[in-house]
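User: Please predict the structure of the protein below. I'd like the answer in structure-token form so I can feed it into my own downstream comparison script.

Assistant: Understood. Taking the following sequence of 259 residues as input:
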Amino acid sequence: MSTVSGPPPTIEFHGVSYSLSDGRPILHPLSLSVEHGETLVLLGRSGAGKTTLLKLVNRLLDPSGGEVQVNGRATSGLDPIRLRRGIGYAIQEVGLFPHLTVEKNIGLLPRVEGWPPERTHRRVSELLDLVGLGAGLGSRYPHQLSGGQRQRVGVARALVIDPPILLMDEPFGALDPITRTEIRSEFQLLQRRLKKTILFVTHDLHEALHLATRIAFFEAGRLLGTYTPAEFLGDPHPMITAYRNAFDAGPQSRPDGSG
């Protein structure tokens, strides 16, 4: 009797580790798969190795050991520039160019890729609507936008050439709590429509529970395990219990010391 299997994992880490030039380990050997269309949240305190793992996917860093695969191909054999152009990347600081308008910030990669101007303009307008901004903001500069609006522009830029993979590093971390709640709810609705494969870094337990298909929990450069949100809430591991309790206790007790 034959069985029908789903698509293979989009991203795979096989025995991957990373150390600094002085030999200090940042990531201990780990194996992990990111399934097609899922949102895998990398959760853990600051310095746990989450961002390092993220950067190994698009070759901002190369592993010290093991192999990273994207769509079944080892990233070590791929051109880093071409690899990055096929992966959306959104970070907390947004990284918008202050001298470019919103439209030109979002449309930068399509122009590099040689898209005709009318196609680029059409795609930018579509994305501004998609992230809840509206085409009227396209002529503004980043300093003329609120923090929440700049984050939305950052998400739009990450989506502009419709990449199947999104890497998101604390993308909403600099926002006030109300705006952060609003934008992550909008992002969750967006993901339901677009079905991207997403690696999402956060230290915020509530954000992880809200957005994750699965949670990969990191502590001191080690992957402790992967869990559904419900499994994470019920896992008795002492470090996971302490992490949950820190968030229940309020901002002053959180593992990263933040609010």
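That's the full token string. The beta strands are 11-19, 25-34, 39-43, 65-70, 73-74, 87-91, 165-169, 197-202, 214-219, 222-227.
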